[in-house]
Amino acid sequence: VLRNRIILQLQIISVLQWVITFLVMEKRGRHPEWVRNWTVWKHFRDYFPIRLIKTHTFLLIRNYIFEYHPHGIVYFGAFCNSGTEATGFSKKIPGICPHLATLSGNFRLPLPQDYLLSGGICPVNRKAIDYIFSKSGTGNSVGGAAESLDCTPGKNIVTLKNRKGFVKLALQQGADWVAVYSFGENEVYKQIILKKFHGRGMFSANTWGIVPYSKLKTQQIKQYHYLYVHSLKKTVGCWTGNA
Questions:
Q1: Do the beta carbons of residue 186 and residue 155 sit within 8 Å?
Q2: Backbone angles phi and psi of 65, in degrees to 5
Q3: How far apart, in whole angstroms, are the C-alpha atoms of residue 148 and residue 73?
Q4: How far apart are CA 164 and CA 41, in angstroms?
Q5: What local confidence, expressed as pLDDT, does residue 231 receive?
Q6: What is the C-alpha separation between 84 and 98, in angstroms, rounded?
Q7: pTM for the full model?
Q8: 8-30 burial code (b ≥16 CB/10 A, e <16)
Q9: More confidently predicted of 212 and 152
Q10: CB 52 within 8 A of CB 92
Q11: Are 220 and 228 in contact (CB under 8 A)?
């Protein structure tokens, strides 16, 4: 009986810890340096291998959105460069605290939740990102799951044309964009491409039943989106021969 009570108490404590972490910590991540400096991350880096090349000087008084391209299947490069110290992020970009953003659903299971939080990873939602911007810089892959469908070896396809939300967010927060391109991200896996088919669900990310579609109207957003795309193409063009 005593044993069962102890087990029950431990289970209750574990559930409470998970709930508290989910409600409080998920919006910012824990960011412990000792986890970021694990030796296993160096082996992870050398397996591919992965390098971090900085081409710009960053001001400590500014917040930055590191837009990572392409997304790939698992975005190994983004995690290794921003979620760990294996490639020397803090030494190459001192004073900037990186936070990767991923789907909120990834935080709903206890063990994956702790794993993600330990790397300073936060949910890619407005509440979490607003909090991060009030403290430090952040990183995100604009294309997301849609772009991962195009990660075919030998091709560099970026889902960016209709992704303007990150531009609006940066303008509202007064943050700067940083174009980050990972050469070789699409070479990690071979993907079986299924033929497209058309259908219509009850709900989607853009509409809720009879509610009209939400459309961005601001000309300023389109202007800065164009400038970002132009800069990204220029960056890729400069480094294609050196990748």
A1: yes
A2: -110, 110
A3: 5
A4: 33
A5: 87
A6: 9
A7: 0.70
A8: eeeeeeeeeebeebbeeebbbbe
A9: 152
A10: yes
A11: no
Tokens of 105: 């659903």
Region of poorest pLDDT, from 73-77, 104-108, 203-207, 224-228: 203-207
How far lies 226's CA from each of 66, 138, 189, 218, 238, in Å?
17, 21, 31, 13, 19
Q: SS3 sequence, the chain?
A: CHHHHHHHHHHHHHHHHHHHHHHHHHHCCCCCHHHHCCHHHHHHHHHCCCCCCCCCCCCCCCCEEEEEECCCCCCHHHHHHHCCCCCCHHHHCCCCCCCEEECHHHHCCHHHHHHHHHCCCEECCHHHHHHHHCCCCEEECCCHHHHHCCCCCCCCCCCCCCCCHHHHHHHHHCCEEEEEECCCHHHCCCCCCCCCCCCCCCECCCCECCCCCCCCCCHHHHHHHHHHHHHHHHHHHHHHHHC
**Distance (Å, whole) CA 30 – CA 120:** 5
Contact residues for 20 (Cβ-Cβ < 8 A; gap 6+)? none
Distance, in Å, from the CA atom of 182 to the CA atom of 176, rounded to the nearest integer, reads 19
- Residue 17 tokens read as 């810890």
Q: How distant is the alpha carbon of residue 13 from its chain centre?
A: 31
Cα separation, 28 vs 131, in Å, equals 7
